[in-house]
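anyone seen this seq b4? input:
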Amino acid sequence: MAETLVCTALEGGRYEGVLTGAVQTEIEALHRGKIISIAQLAPHPEEEGAMAVSLTLPVEVVSDGVQVVGLRSSASGEVLDRITLMAGSALDEDIRGEMALLRDELEMLKRAFRRHCAETGED
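predicted toks r here
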């Protein structure tokens, strides 16, 4: 059975996931070809034979541009999951940021239009 790692949460710099099919292994976090951390493994409370994986990302990986952290099995050497972080001024022109700004502006316009309709009694 092949090792499988599925992310269940990534919040506040903490990765959590479920590892299945693993034999004695560690999960190494790799950034720019170097091991930056080792994940904590514990028996999963709800899935028999699975392991709960948790890892706090070091602050060094939060920097301008796109940063990728690979989560690799020490037993097989296979990268089981990746965490991609994007930040900083290098992304000012990124389409996702532009879309978020457009959504915010559209919501502002919708609220103003609804307020105007309510004040004038128009539908």
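The beta strands are 4-11, 14-20, 27-31, 34-38, 40-43, 51-56, 65-73, 79-87. The mean pLDDT is 88. kinda curious what u guys think
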